[in-house]
Amino acid sequence: MACIRIPSEDRVMDDPESIRRFLLPFGIHYDRWPVAGRIHGDASQEEILAAYEPEVEALKQRGGYITADVVNVTPDVPNLQAMLDKFNQEHRHAEDEVRFIVKGRGIFYIHPETTDPLFSIEVEEGDLINVPAGTKHWFDLCADRTIRAIRLFREKAGWTPEYTGDQIAANYQPLCFGPNYIHERGIRVEQAIAIA
């Protein structure tokens, strides 16, 4: 289940309805889709898309999306860090970023254009998120560096990152990286608890 963190307010939300209400003014759509028993762990892209066809088709109709695919990222992906470095810097897209998480976890950081504080949305299996076109954000994986997600597009060219040049992302480390990441960085546990 998703979790929202607002670091400047030391605030955390993990109730789905509270998350929906919080994200709505930012134009971000959040939902949960059932996952238990729908696919097996090694399902192919075709099997995943077939299992979620009713939901995907409804999203296509509602959002004007024309295509869907499945991205599968694991620690074994060649040049994984180089790929992640394209998305862990603040950027925008010319079209919506729509993701349904089938497996794994990741974290979106949203940097509102308004005076509202920066916040993160940690997503995991069963979470659907739609970050609207033009929203300043960045994305990173969690500790297991694994994510499998259905992606929807109006056109793939619109999904190219447009970097803002702001280095703000360097000030935020994914809290979902967990104790191994914290230990490797030499952060004392008391510090980790204070920032979580």
Estimate the helix proportion, in percent.
10-25%
**What string, H for helix and E for strand, traces the elements in order?**
EEHEHHEHEEEEEEEHH
**Low-confidence segments:** 179-196
Number of domains: 1
User: How can the largest sheet be summarized?
Assistant: 9 strands, antiparallel
Which fold does the CATH topology refer to? Jelly Rolls
**CATH homologous superfamily name?**
Jelly Rolls
Through-space gap between termini: 17 Å
Please tell me what the overall shape is.
globular
| Structural classification | alpha+beta
Number of helices: 6
The CATH level-2 architecture is identified as Sandwich
Overview of the structural elements:
The chain is an alpha+beta fold and 196 residues long. The protein is 23% helix and 30% strand. The longest helix has 11 residues. The strands form 2 sheets. Strands 1, 2, 3, 4, 6, 7, 8, 9 and 10 form a 9-stranded antiparallel sheet that branches. The C terminus is likely disordered. The protein has a single domain, classed as Jelly Rolls (Sandwich). The chain contains 6 helices and 11 strands.
